[in-house]
């Protein structure tokens, strides 16, 4: 008489144990903070749609497009989490060439405001390849610097990183997109610093950049870019021109008070007084409708998310993971500081979106890809940690 065991077989027990380890290593806090910020972004998209008079499910609805991009971003996040990040090191150079190719295509066939070339139309949807290029640049730098840990004391190692970042930086600057180009710079500096590059040579390169600024200001930047960069110093000097957006943004934030005037009740939004209120200046509408308390909650969520990004880097036993996490943190922090800073009038006005909150599919999908890679790094360490 045979005895049939009701317990799990060895392969089943191994699989269950393996899944348990992977689940414990998955950073649920990172996902929750990112998801909550995404909810705030959807709320702003809903508000912009209602105040514009467009139906929620209309084809031109900002909210409907935001829902679609959110679904795609979630899929990208899950796929990136399941994908073994070690393969990114194997394909770093092809990814670099893809990055360059996407930016060249943008210059060739892209469209934008005022003759710029920033967006490429894909099945009727506008996609900004420079957003994806930021994440690919972090992958390339993490692979390059991670493979040279302990050998970054020479100037040549730093110049190598600069040579890698140079072509994407120039291609983005030619679009022209000064804001995104500055994000590239922040990524390069942060990843070099976190990889242990020589502080002496970093100082020399920094001093060289400062010395080159007068040349860039005179011969590289267009007049309208100069005007936008200096408008925050005295917005009242040209209220009908370069200072208009900043003045309207500050009116919106000041109207919000402690708890805001309520979602969809923004006068700046309803009356169409604030341009690009769903992208670059969305934080002004958020401050008006949700108030000081709502704005602080959003900023606290960003701080918590950045903390979890850095924790992923600290836990990584692979230099690639540590450097990649530092690059993602630099990308998010730089965009957060510049976007919020320009809205409240303490930073130059540049076209930098607020992660998760600004409407834009390319930005959201790129961030989802970056966070998914971080989760892949989390669950593929030798042992799970909290």
Question: What report would you give on this structure?
Answer:
The chain has a two-stranded antiparallel sheet. It is globular and about 55 Å long. α5 (92-109) packs antiparallel against α6 (129-146) and α13 (282-315) packs antiparallel against α14 (319-344). It has one domain (28-379). The chain has helices at 10-25, 28-52, 62-82, 86-90, 92-109, 129-146, 155-173, 178-194, 199-220, 223-230, 244-256, 267-270, 282-315, 319-344, 361-379; strands at 120-122, 125-127. The protein has 386 residues and is an all-alpha fold. The model is unreliable at 1-14 (pLDDT under 50).
Can you give me a brief rundown of this structure?
The chain has 15 helices and two strands. It is an all-alpha fold and 386 residues long.
Query: In angstroms, what is the radius of gyration?
Result: 23 Å
- Please list the strands of the largest sheet in the order they lie side by side: 1-2
SSE succession:
HHHHHEEHHHHHHHHHH
Give the low-pLDDT segments: 1-14
- How many structural domains in the coordinates? 1
Average pLDDT taken over every residue: 83
- Considering DSSP H and I runs of 4 or more, what fraction of the residues is helical? 55-70%
Main sheet overview? 2 strands, antiparallel
Number of strands: 2
Number of helices: 15
Residue fraction in strands = under 5%
Features:
two-stranded antiparallel ribbon, 2 strands, 15 helices, 69% helix, 386 residues, mainly alpha
């Amino acid at each position: 008489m045979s005895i049939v065991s009701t317990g799990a077989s060895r392969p089943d027990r191994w699989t269950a144990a393996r899944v348990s380890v992977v689940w414990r290593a998955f950073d649920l806090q990172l996902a929750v903070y990112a998801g909550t910020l995404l909810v705030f972004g959807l709320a702003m998209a809903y508000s912009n749609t209602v105040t514009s008079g467009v139906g929620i499910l209309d084809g031109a609805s900002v909210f409907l497009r935001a829902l679609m991009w959110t679904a795609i971003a979630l899929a990208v996040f899950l796929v990136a989490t399941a994908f073994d990040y070690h393969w990114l090191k194997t394909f770093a150079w092809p990814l670099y060439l893809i990055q360059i190719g996407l930016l060249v295509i943008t210059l060739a066939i892209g469209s934008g405001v005022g003759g710029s070339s920033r967006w490429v139309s894909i099945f009727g949807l506008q996609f900004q390849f420079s957003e994806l290029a930021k994440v690919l640049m972090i992958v390339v730098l993490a692979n390059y610097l991670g493979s040279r840990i302990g050998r970054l004391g020479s100037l040549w190692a730093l110049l190598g990183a600069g040579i890698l970042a140079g072509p994407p930086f120039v291609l983005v600057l030619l679009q022209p997109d000064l804001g995104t180009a500055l994000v590239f710079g922040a990524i390069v500096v942060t990843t070099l610093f976190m990889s242990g590059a020589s502080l002496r040579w970093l100082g020399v390169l920094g001093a060289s950049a400062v010395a080159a600024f007068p040349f860039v200001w005179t011969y590289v930047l267009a007049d309208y870019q100069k005007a936008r960069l200096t408008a925050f110093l005295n917005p009242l000097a040209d209220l009908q021109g370069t200072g208009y957006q900043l003045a309207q943004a500050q009116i919106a934030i000041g109207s919000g008070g402690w708890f805001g005037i309520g979602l969809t009740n923004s006068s700046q939004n309803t009356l169409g007084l604030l341009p690009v209120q769903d992208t670059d200046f969305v934080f002004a509408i958020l401050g008006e409708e949700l108030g000081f308390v709502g704005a602080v909650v959003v900023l606290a969520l960003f701080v918590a998310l950045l903390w979890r990004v850095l924790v992923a880097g600290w836990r990584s036993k692979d230099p690639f993971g540590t450097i990649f996490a530092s690059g993602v943190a630099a990308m998010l922090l730089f965009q957060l500081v510049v976007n919020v800073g320009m809205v409240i009038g303490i930073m130059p006005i540049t076209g930098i979106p607020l992660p998760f909150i600004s409407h834009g599919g390319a930005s959201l999908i790129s961030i989802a890809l970056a966070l998914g890679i971080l989760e892949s790094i989390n669950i593929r360490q030798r042992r799970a940690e909290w």
